[in-house]
Amino acid sequence: MLTETKRKNFLHFALPDFDDSEYLGIKEVLASGWITTGPKTLEFEKQFAAVVGCRQAIAVNSCTAAMHLSLEAIGLQPEDEVITTPYTFAATAEVIRYFQAKPVFVDINASDFNINVNKIESAITERTRAIIPVHIAGLAADLDAISAIAVKYNLAVIEDAAHAFPARYKDRMIGRSLPVDQGSNGKTVRKTAVCFSFYATKTISTAEGGMICTDDDALAERCRIMALHGISKDAWKRYAAEGSWFYEVIAPGYKYNLTDIAAAMGLAQLRKAERMWERRCEIAERYNEAFGAQPALQIPVDKPEYQHAWHLYMLRFNHGQLNTDRNEIIKELNAQNIGTSVHFIPLHIHPYYKKTFNYQALDFPVAFAEYQRVISLPVYSKMNDQDVDDVIENVLNIVKKYKTY
Question: Among 76, 66, 73, which residue's Cα sits nearest to residue 98?
């Protein structure tokens, strides 16, 4: 029985799942006297690498930093091109522009919002150096197809996995490097890296943070050096008892290192990651059961051979089935104290990309069309059953109020 009862408290769109374990970890770091990059960061890297199955993990202060460092490590140059999707956050393309290189957008699949691999080859030119697939909402892009294209054209693959922990693509965790198979032309995938986010809203959080995962030792070493001013030794190695004061500047680097304070949070979050993922799966299943039979609604795609991280629950409203639009639905939910968001406003319709590359909205028609009817509902482990009930009840009330069928 649906009611019109408004929630007493505002349900945030996303909240981190913290408890005493994060506080105790931070307290331990503060008591140690070593608060910047040091032993906790090294332990976080080691444990994260073990979970996802990669050989090297480099902790940094954001996923943006992770992608920037990865592109620097492959030697991206001005006027080079990197293929990616317009259906993503600003960071994915802006890191390409840091090099005065060109992001070349490829439209998405209408089914799952991920890059349409069938359109990638037609976007490749002699200037193409890499592909950045984005695992939207925590559902992996088609990595086998992307890997095959990368092999064929000798391209690097830098995965934007900001949403994708703990996600799987078939039999491997996102974070494990793509298989380096030799193509018929004798070429292999040139460089691969997977970049994660630990931002406040992500599936595990260090407030701000990120991780580069790779099996390429040379790429990993370059990222480590460039993450801390391009110097040959980080502060921990220089100031520890067994360290040396001497260092060398290898290249003009950046200030992208993660602190031990953040890493302590990350270690605590990593221990709870499976429990938090299981709760998000439960919430997503509740939503699917409630919304799946509604003609006005389209629930997210899930693939049984993958593992969805459920960082986002992206619900779509079917045009013609409701006498209202997505923006009004957001306002109605907000009025009932239900927080929501929209993922994403496609990059090609933002002023910078329109002006710089002369993009028009319908240059990528699928991305533009899906953006206009999608809404992201709260799906995080701190939500209790009543929170979930409230979201379901209010969405169904809106459908009942505005349905045309």
Answer: 76
Return the pLDDT at 191.
78
Write down the H helix ranges in 175-244.
217-226, 235-239
Count other C-beta atoms under 10 Å from residue 43's C-beta. 16
Please give the positions annotated as active site.
202
The CA distance from 17 to 201, in Å, is: 10
Residue 334 near residue 11 (C-beta atoms within 8 A): no
**How many domains, in total, are found in the chain?**
2
Q: Distance (Å, rounded) from C-alpha 74 to C-alpha 129?
A: 9
pLDDT at site 242? 67
SS3 236: helix
Domain assignment present for residue 34? The answer is yes
Please report, for the domain that includes residue 181, its CATH number: 3.40.640.10
Handedness of CA 93, 207, 210, 226 (dihedral sign): positive
Residue 235: phi, psi to the nearest 5? -60, -40
Tokens of 125: 């030119």
Q: Which of 214, 243, 265 represents a domain boundary (last residue)? A: 265
Tell me the C-alpha to C-alpha distance, in Å, between residue 73 and each of 5, 130, 133, 273, 341.
54, 12, 18, 30, 34
Residues 43 and 162 in one domain: yes
Cβ-contact 29, 40 below 8 angstroms = yes
For residue 230, pLDDT beyond 60: yes
Is 183's pLDDT higher than 60?
no
What is the mean predicted confidence (pLDDT) over 194-222?
97
Provide the strand spans (E) within 70-187.
Answer: 81-84, 102-105, 128-131, 156-160, 168-169, 172-173
Domain membership of residue 80 (yes or no) is yes
Q: Which residues sit opposite 211 in a β-bridge?
A: 59, 196
pLDDT digits 0-9 by tens, 355-396: 999 999 999 999 999 999 999 999 999 999 999 999 999 999
pLDDT, mean of residues 73-102: 98
DSSP class of residue 311 equals: S
- Percent of the chain exceeding pLDDT 90 equals 89
pTM: 0.95
Residue 4 lies in a domain: no
The verdict on 156 and 196 lying in the same domain is yes
Domain that holds residue 125: 20-265
Contact of 270 with 47, CB cutoff 8 Å: yes
